[in-house]
Amino acid sequence: MTLPATLIDTAFETLTLDSPAEYVLRVTLNRPQAANAMNTQMGHDLTAVFERLSVDVEGYRCVILTGAGEKAFCAGGDLKERKGMSDETWGAQHLVFERMVRALIGCPLPLIGAVNGAAYGGGCEIAAAMDFVYAADTARFALTEVTLGIIPGAGGTQNLPRAVGQRRAMEIILTGTPFTAAEAKEWGLVNTVSAPADLANDVVATAARIAGNAPVSIRQAKQAIRRGMQMSLADGLAFEIEAYNRTVPTKDRQEGILAFNEKRKPVFRGN
């Protein structure tokens, strides 16, 4: 099958894609009848989108991930689909979800979560995998896996402690207790809490601001932070310089300095 010329023209069974601002791609989890729960097809669809972006960003400079409707961002794994699954089928499905999370984390572009409602189980894990998160004040979060006889297996035990700290993550994961958007902000999982009616516009405004900056600089800064946080300080500093040096020979670096001296807004081309 010949793929469409652009990612945004590709049809997905469980996602919708649009561009709410120049250079911004918005990916919407689109199973509102099932609280946007993750079924196997959604795992495949998200993997397809984000693995494709890892090969070709197609001119985009920032990505937003949100859910359809007002009640749910993502209710986690689709337990109706999982009812009666054999161990083998369960394991095969989870391999899809594991690949999906790696694709999300590996996205070269800044990835903003717009949590418009409940983010439970895998939905909370997806939020934790974002570069940062805005949430509606009605959103609620939980990692409830231990109440179902499993544990978080889509990055939750790794990404959540990195966001909120080990002790808070222990409490969240071991109790399975839901928490509010305000608590998520206080603890470091969420950056900004908005009224539900304002969430989409607030996120798009931030994404557009990011997209207005030098694309190579944005990607290099993201990699320096993401990778550097997994290194010692000395190794992180060395990696930062390698990332920095890739921005020096770009035309955008020249444009940025020239625009500053000419007292005008720079026009960045991504090269």
Q: How is this structure best described in words?
A:
The protein is globular. The chain has eleven helices and ten strands. The two termini are 32 Å apart. The strands form two sheets. It has a six-stranded mixed sheet with strand order 1-2-3-5-7-10, sandwiched between helices. It is an alpha/beta fold and 271 residues long. The longest helix has 19 residues, at 87-105. Helix 1 links the parallel strand 2 (24-29) and strand 3. It is 47% helix and 16% strand. The protein has two domains: 7-211, 2-enoyl-CoA Hydratase, Chain A, domain 1, CATH 3.90.226; 215-261, Lyase 2-enoyl-coa Hydratase, Chain  A, domain 2.
The gist of it:
By secondary structure, this protein is of the alpha/beta class. It has helices spanning 40-55, 79-82, 87-105, 122-129, 156-164, 166-175, 181-187, 196-211, 215-228, 233-245, 251-261, and strands spanning 15-21, 24-29, 62-67, 72-74, 111-115, 118-120, 132-136, 140-142, 179-180, 192-194.
Tags for this model:
6-stranded mixed beta sheet, 2-enoyl-CoA Hydratase, Chain A, domain 1, 271 residues, alpha/beta, 2 domains, single chain, 16% strand
Under CATH at level 1, the class of the largest domain stands as Alpha Beta
For the biggest sheet, the summary is: 6 strands, mixed
- How many beta-strand elements? 10
N-to-C terminal Cα separation, in Å?
Answer: 32 Å
Helix content: 40-55%
CATH topology of the largest domain: 2-enoyl-CoA Hydratase, Chain A, domain 1
Number of helices: 11
- Widest sheet: strand ordering: 1-2-3-5-7-10
